[in-house]
Design brief:
This protein is α+β, with helices and mostly antiparallel strands. It has one domain: P-loop containing nucleotide triphosphate hydrolases (Rossmann fold, 3-Layer(aba) Sandwich). It contains 6 helices and 8 strands, in the order E-E-H-H-E-E-E-E-E-E-H-H-H-H. The strands form 2 sheets. Strands 2-1-5-6-7-8 form a 6-stranded antiparallel beta sheet. Strands 3-4 form a two-stranded antiparallel sheet. The protein is globular and about 55 Å long. It starts with a strand and ends with a helix. The relative contact order is 0.13. The structure holds adenosine-5'-triphosphate (ATP) and magnesium ion.
């Protein structure tokens, strides 16, 4: 499984719709002049995949929506197209599209065009090995050092998340509670 394409519209510096070329399943480079939107591109990916942009307040929404020449767009979206030929996502499809939209008042998720809840997205991502609390797939500055300094129990939690098993522990806990 890998990110095949990213489509962005109205998000931060991306006013018009931009769709990347198809990415390789090996190494891809994002290059561009200062201020051209490289960091915003990675923010866009994390906007869909991690839970750092949750419980958005009004000012957070304004910061995410493109604003230029005194005009602010009222909605934006980021769509990530995954190559799922290895069925890492437990869905019988070669390709899946996960889109998150944001407006001035609400934000929503769509899987292949169908509205799904945030909980469903997080479960789907976690069963494919995406970690919620530690989005290890975006290696930010200082991250390598913090991984080496983690406590054993924290590292075990991370491994459970990467292995996609923590979601089952959570579901078990939830079902025992009922
Ligand atoms: P560098 O090489 O300096 O790291 P970069 O390619 O990472 O640059 P970004 O940080 O992604 O660039 O983009 C910065 C630009 O995005 C700034 O010009 C900023 O004004 C613009 N920007 C951020 N949020 C918005 C927004 N909501 N509306 C319009 N422009 C925005
Ligand atoms: Mg940058």
């Amino acid at each position: 499984m890998f990110i095949k394409q990213v489509i962005i519209e109205g998000f931060k510096s991306y006013k018009e719709q931009v769709a990347t070329e198809e990415f390789s399943n090996k190494v891809n480079c994002v290059v561009g002049a200062n201020g051209s939107g490289k960091s915003n591109f990675f923010h866009a990916i994390r906007f869909v995949l991690s839970d750092i942009y949750q419980n958005l307040r009004s000012e957070d929404r304004h910061a995410l929506l493109h604003e230029g020449a005194g005009h602010q767009v009222v909605s934006a979206f980021v769509e990530i197209v995954f190559d799922n030929s290895d069925n890492r996502f437990p869905v019988d499809k070669e390709e899946i599209r996960l889109r998150r939209t944001v407006g001035l008042k609400k934000d929503d998720y769509f899987l292949d065009g169908k509205h799904i809840t945030k909980g469903e997205v997080m479960n789907l991502l976690e069963s494919a090995g995406f970690s919620r609390a530690n989005p290890y797939y975006v290696v930010q500055q200082g991250k390598i050092a913090s991984l080496t300094l983690m406590k054993d129990i924290e590292r075990l939690d991370l491994l459970k998340e990467i292995g996609g098993t923590r979601v089952y522990e959570e579901r078990r806990r939830e079902s025992l509670r009922i």
